[in-house]
Amino acid sequence: MFVLRYKIVQKLMEKAALMSEDAKASHNQILKCLIIQAFIPSLLMIGVSCYILSQLGLITHPFIEYLIFASICTMPMLSPFTYLTFIKPYKAFCMRLFHLQRRGFRRGDSNAYYSTTRSNGI
């Protein structure tokens, strides 16, 4: 995994002089997302090791039985979540969709304060 990441970074560095700042930022976001997604299948090892421990009788607890299925079931959910978290256009869309984006006010813009207080009923 780290070898592939190193090779990808080396290829991107070779082309860095030809890329714009936006392209470099996009490549950086995608690379970060790919690295996180490459670690998602390691959750399977948690489930497998818990299953082996419970089958051998070393650990018997209902939480371990739950952890076996929970670790396996979360993998398909985490894959799209990494896109929504690390890729900026997707993150911005979700922030707008759920109204979680902070409003930025410019200094000296008196209408910005008035419009927010008026919409809040103040």
UniProtKB/TrEMBL annotation:
Keyword check for Transmembrane helix: yes
Entry protein name: G protein-coupled receptor
Main location per the UniProt record: membrane
Organism: Caenorhabditis tropicalis
Topology with respect to the bilayer: Multi-pass membrane protein
Regions that span the bilayer: 34-54, 66-86
Family: Belongs to the nematode receptor-like protein srd family.
Keyword vocabulary terms for this entry: Membrane, Transmembrane, Transmembrane helix
InterPro entries per UniProt: 7TM_GPCR_serpentine_rcpt_Srd, Nematode_rcpt-like_delta
